[in-house]
Amino acid sequence: MKLDILAFGAHPDDVELGAGATIAKEIANEKKIGIIDLTRGELGTRGSAEIRDKEGAEAAKILGVSVRENLKFADGFFRNDKAHQLEIIKLIRKYRPEIVLCNAIEDRHIDHARGSNLVSDACFLSGLIKIETKLESDNVVQDPWRPKVVYHYIQWKNVEPDFVVDVSEFIEKKTEAIMAYSSQFHNPKSNEPETPISSKNFIDSINYRARDFGRLIGVAYAEGFTAERHVAVRNLGDLI
Questions:
Q1: What span, in angstroms and rounded, lies between the C-alpha atoms of 186 and 200?
Q2: How far is CA 226 from the centre of its chain?
Q3: Distances (CA, A) of 84 to 7, 87, 111, 119, 184
Q4: Domains of the chain: which residue ranges?
Q5: pLDDT interval class at 239 (50, 70, 90)
Q6: CA torsion angle for 157, 32, 172, 54 (degrees, to 10)?
Q7: Do residues 65 and 173 touch, judged by C-beta distance below 8 A?
């Protein structure tokens, strides 16, 4: 299955928090999108890996993505090395996306920056013909594939985006997908320990940021991204 966009997250819920509305918008525009979680988030204070598996599946259903896979790397301990790069290369070659979305280049959680670098490096290496990979399911040597662009969604830290996407009509879908992770986010009835992301303020902050990015471009809500190279448009009419 060829996908238009493949979104990677170090943990289940990273993609929804950073780019959920953009993904919902692209799907509404008939783009095929997949999500790849690097870990199961097993070190998370609240809930469990098994619970997050179910929550991730529900969030994927809400957004309408074509596929969601989990590489089951070690939460907190995966590395940007050959073994991990090869696993990601296999999926890039399997789905052949034009666009890859991934974690913030720098962020509070150490897995975010590490995951960002890992996916970005794998995207480059995936285009090298002398790197041979096979999927276990068919044992056929994969053709090389390099995505056209890699974009990084914004997470905990407030950074200046290189571009923003008007997501005004899809912010509610994003919120619904985020709240599918009921074990992780604000729940007054929960008896589990409080974390930096379990407060109501954190959920509100996701909305505040989208409203602020929207305010700056004259729309209701927007999501911001950073790019690894200059962002180009075909003509000035593409700008809003």
A1: 5
A2: 13
A3: 17, 5, 13, 9, 26
A4: 5-238
A5: confident
A6: -80
A7: no
pLDDT tens per residue across span 37-59? 999 999 999 989 999 999 999 99
Helix (H/G/I), strand (E/B), else coil: 14: helix
What the block records as the tokens of 45 is 């204070």
231, 161 contact by CB (below 8 A): no
Q: Could you tell me the CATH superfamily of domain 5-238?
A: LmbE-like (3.40.50.10320)
Tokens of 35: 């999500």
d(CA 70, CA 54): 12
What DSSP line would sit under 36-99, residue for residue?
EEEE--TT-SSS-HHHHHHHHHHHHHHHT-SEEEEEEEPTTT--SSHHHHHHHHHHHHHH--SE
Structural tokens at position 58: 């529900």
